[in-house]
Amino acid sequence: MIRMKRLFYALLLSFSILSAGQVSAQVIDEMGDESKLYASTKLVNQFFRRFNGEEDEKGERYYEGNKNFHDPAIRRRYIGILFDNQNTMIPASLKKEFAQEMTDKAGQKFLDFHSGNWMAEVNALFTYQGKEQPVTLFMKLQPQRLGYEWVIEEVYFEPFKKYFNKDTTASKKFLHPMSHELDFMNLRKAFQESENPESYTPDEFAPSYLTLFLYEMKRGNLKFKTVREVKFHFFQLNNWYFEVSQFNRSGYNSGWLISNIVKTSEENKKAIKNYLYGKN
Length: 280
Prior knowledge:
The chain is of the alpha+beta class. The protein is elongated, with a radius of gyration of 24 Å. Strands 3-2-1-4-5-6 form a six-stranded antiparallel β-sheet. It contains nine helices and six strands, in the order αααααβββαααβββα.
């Protein structure tokens, strides 16, 4: 699945691959002397603050009333170093366009921790029927009394996919429109002779993998082992989607950084979500 995602982003971006040297030179040229701004973005909350221009290079907070709070020039420089600069699939021109649009004085755009339209992708390891299996949990924040809580919104689990293979062809099996006159007794034959009872569901039927996941956990068939990787997907900003991943490596360009970005329509964001959920 990881390989498929890489191919997906490569096709969706449709950008030519630039050399690492070209990217580095263009980014530095745009940002000027950025060395004092470099510091590993160790926390996701810190990513929000740096993106919004609410923190200095030492990690000290800017509050409303401070001249640097939400300053467009500071934000533009910070956003430039919040990218994974080892990823040559993201051209410097796209980074520049993104930073300029986010910091346009006519209407700056900010990330909001509590406003929704962003989610965590948690790649975890479970045991299922005695075997280790990867499970992807998609989590979101929701209000909870006086605060917020993380909840599981969607699940991707490969073994569940094989349970539902609905036939949508013209030759698929179906229940005759006069079945009611037979008291639906033909259900016996339909269920006994069919390995795909989902064939008798509405066209819009879509299985809930989250329900199946919880059911198998309650039965004791699925047992949590560990979390292997976490990343975040942001859909908040109009006409932009980007992904934030953690890079544990030496140097300043490390921690939580933008690993993929796409300029896209709001309608296409639905397709991206469905792809991530494994619904395509």
